[in-house]
Design goal:
Helix content: 40-55%
Number of helices: 11
Strand order of the largest sheet: 3-2-1-4-5-6-10
CATH superfamily of the largest domain: NAD(P)-binding Rossmann-like Domain
Largest sheet: 7 strands, parallel
CATH class of the largest domain: Alpha Beta
Shape: globular
CATH architecture of the largest domain: 3-Layer(aba) Sandwich
Strand content: 15-25%
Number of strands: 13
Length: 329
């Protein structure tokens, strides 16, 4: 089992879940955004997904039968400023992985996709049948691969599952793995950082048509996402069928609710200030996840916001410098 991007946030949690399910795992990561410490004892091939020859050698040397693909850039704002970076890595690089798989006869692919493929929601909760009209290069780069996958299926016999998840959050309940981005772009770790004396949290807009005026999002625990990926792998290998599923709790929470949860869990105040809306931020994004429940047998273990924040807080308070330290500040 090859996990590309397996040294990253979601990928490392998936590696742990795969090992617990009895899979032999090899990680492939260039460590630009991932962390060697997150891989632990799992074999690591350090390389770029655009290096098709190295991907092929890795598939052959480790007798890989399936690929779980997380390797991607994911900063929506950056994707608007630097679309070439996102198309080169997320599209061209992923096509390189698929090319290598076809050449080596590897026919099972689980793809880390995103709700950003939907763009501005026409309805909420968002079902898998919702039109896909992304409004940024990140979402467009993921959709480009989703659209390529059926062609690889027809031509090369690829079986695949695309998992469109919403706001990945939280940390490993065992405290071994967590979220360590530089710079950090996600609200829960940024709110925790503010509570720990770091930079003040910016709240982008309070005039949305929501109960408290701030954006509503669907926060899904990273361990639950990892579990869904293992279930998707099992199903794809068993049934030899392909498709796409949303991954979310179906329960939206506002920015102010996140701040409240962080304050409850940490017992600290989160300093924040109001900033202008960000272009392209929809008022509400949350999932209809019935398909994942029905087809994958997936039920989130951490559906409530305080539980998600609690695991994140445990990670950040014991890893104040991320993977560079494990001691309490």
């Amino acid at each position: 089992m090859l996990v590309t991007g397996g040294a990253g946030y979601i990928g490392s949690h998936a590696v742990k879940a795969l090992e617990r399910s009895g899979y032999g795992v090899v990680v492939y990561d260039n460590l630009i955004a991932g962390h060697r410490q997150a891989v632990g004892h799992v074999p690591l091939v350090e390389g770029d997904i655009g290096d098709v020859a190295l991907v092929r050698r890795t598939l052959k040397a480790h007798q890989i039968s399936a690929v779980m693909h997380f390797a991607a850039f994911l900063d929506v704002g950056e994707s608007v400023r630097e679309p070439v970076k996102y198309y080169r890595n997320n599209v061209v690089g992923t096509l390189g992985v698929l090319e290598a798989m076809a050449a080596e006869g590897v026919s099972t692919f689980v793809f880390s996709s995103t709700c950003a493929t939907y763009g501005e929601p026409l309805e909420t909760p968002i079902p898998e049948t919702h039109p896909q009209h992304p409004i940024n290069a990140y979402g467009a780069s993921k959709l480009a691969i989703e659209r390529a996958l059926p062609h690889f299926e027809r031509a090369y016999g690829l079986h695949w599952m695309a998992l469109r998840y919403f706001n990945a959050s939280g940390a490993d309940p065992d405290g071994e793995l967590g979220e360590d981005h530089s710079p950090e772009i996600h609200i829960i770790p940024r709110a925790i950082e503010a509570a720990m004396g770091g930079a003040e949290l910016k709240v982008f807009g309070n005039d949305y048509p929501t109960p408290d005026g701030t954006c509503l999002r669907d926060y899904v625990h990273v361990t639950d996402l990892a579990d869904a990926h293992v279930r998707a792998l099992d199903r794809t290998m068993r049934t030899k069928t392909s498709g796409a599923c949303n991954l979310g709790t179906g329960t939206p929470h506002s920015v102010l609710e996140v701040i409240g949860a962080v304050e409850r869990v940490t017992g600290r105040t989160v300093p924040w200030s109001l900033a202008a809306r960000r272009p392209g931020d929809p008022a509400a994004l949350y999932a209809a996840s019935g398909k994942a429940f029905d087809e994958l047998g997936w039920t989130p273990r951490f559906p409530d916001l305080d539980s998600i924040v609690g695991t994140a807080w445990n990670w950040h308070r014991t890893h104040p410098a991320g993977y560079r330290t494990s001691s309490h500040p």
